[in-house]
Design brief:
elongated; two-stranded parallel sheet; Arc Repressor Mutant, subunit A; 4 strands; mainly alpha; Rossmann fold
């Protein structure tokens, strides 16, 4: 219960401006809750109110809650809403970050324990490395071509497809690709090789943040 508020007042503060479906999601029993809704339907409000409800009811500690989203803007909005609900709930201590920011923080902590003394660096852009990988594979390295190749690498990594399995995977699903599948697979393999222990340091892209953290 929110400190300094009656149970009725605390409940009204969290639920008063929600519709029936939002209220149901906020008050659902502890455990996973899936909210499927379009843009502008109040998903962020519902999620932050659910966090506030669980924290104020003593079901979870605010410092052990991590809210994740896709963009910095959305993460900032979520933090703002949690701070607005902080009085009497403690939601101001809840962390709200993007998926990549949360993964980077976890990786910074666990990397030395898992990998050892090899340092890692997050690439600001993969463009130069993809261009070098394409050049090694004998493909043109114009801006549009490198962008298309980078997009294919990102798609493959997000789909958990290795360089060795790329050609087979795109053939199975009939994916429209910018170059010969075997060539793209070679570029992908070259790219991963160029990132590995480069100048004594492992280079990671944003996809690697999620993949290494999940592993």
């Amino acid at each position: 219960m929110m400190v300094g508020m009656s149970p009725t007042a605390a409940r009204d503060r969290l639920l008063g401006d929600l519709d029936d479906e939002q209220r149901e999601a906020v008050l659902a029993p502890r455990g996973p809750v899936c909210v499927l809704a379009g843009a502008g339907t109040g998903k962020t409000r519902t999620i932050t109110r659910r966090i506030a409800h669980l924290v104020s009811a003593g079901h979870v500690a605010p410092g052990q809650v991590l809210a994740v989203t896709f963009t910095q803007r959305a993460a900032g909005e979520m933090r703002g809403r949690l701070r607005a609900l902080d009085e009497g709930t403690g939601t101001g201590a809840v962390q709200a970050q993007t998926f990549h920011a949360a993964a980077r923080r976890q990786l910074a902590y666990f990397w030395p324990r898992v990998v050892g003394n090899t340092d890692w660096q997050l690439m600001d852009s993969k463009f130069a490395v993809v261009a070098q990988a394409a050049n090694r594979a004998g493909l043109p390295t114009g801006t549009d071509n490198v962008r298309d190749l980078a997009g294919e690498i990102e798609w493959a990594k997000a789909s958990l497809i290795s360089p060795e399995d790329y050609a087979r995977s795109v053939a199975e699903i009939g994916r429209d690709i910018p170059f010969d599948a075997a060539k793209i697979g070679t570029v992908y393999a070259n790219y991963e090789t160029l990132k590995t222990r480069r100048e004594g340091m492992a280079l990671l892209d944003f996809d690697d943040l999620l993949l290494h953290t999940a592993a």
